[in-house]
Design brief:
Order of helices and strands: HHHHHHHHHHHEE
Helix content: over 70%
Radius of gyration: 24 Å
Strand order of the largest sheet: 1-2
Strand content: under 5%
Length: 294
Amino acid sequence: MRARLIRAVLALYPAAIRERYGDEIAELLAASDTPARDLADTARCALHDRLTRRADTITLAQARTAAFIVFKLVVAPLAFGVLLLLLLTTAGLLADVTGAHEAAPYGYALAVALAAASMWWFGRWMARSEPIVAAAVVIPAALALGVGGISAVAPIGDVLGEVRAGSLTAVACWAVGATGLGCAVSVLLRRGRRVAAWLSSVLGALLLLDAVTAVYVVTALPPERAPRHNAPLWYPSAMSWWDPGLVDGAYRQLEDSIKMLPPMLTMCTVFVLAVVGVAASRPSTGHLNGVTGT
């Protein structure tokens, strides 16, 4: 038991210190007459060294780079929205030119799928070119700020949802859920459980998006307009333009209220999972007596 505690405490030190002094510290702790007190003191010193070392090694250039990455993440939803609008407009124009208006919903659904696929590619590219610290937490928070900023600005925010309070509430819930999903997927990938990680990604994303869509509708529309027993159908309807009369008992009334919020959050979710997938697949560095750290 003491050997395990010693290894755990040593893992708190920066890798350079562990490599140089790890064996000596371990021997002193193993021979200590007051192991509990010495382990606690050593852990405190290890944390102090790690925090101090990180603060000393962050240069002004690195801080600027990190700030610029966060800025790009905050404004990214604006680019996501422009791409989505372009694809949806193209699908609508094709329907007008060909006269196949009955097939327009399929074109819109294909446009959203292409936008989500683009986010998957872009997220993986960004994760490889610009490693992001704590991606599962930073990216959902930054994207939520961006989407929330768009939602709060009239009349641009009306594109994401006609009821601003509903949009902002849904975005806040999405940020919390996406952080939890990203952390869970990251843990599974680091443990080598890739199949479980990707199954969790797909199922978790669908459940999250279905839940935040329901949050918007419940916040924005009264029960007499949007019967609550239809809640599981709101997200599939918003994404596919299939609507059997989920709001006001009329065709496409849900789309008129919720507009582009579900596709936008879908793109953001795909982006988060793409970045987390790359970040969590990188091998960790630093190894001492069977303990891996960074």
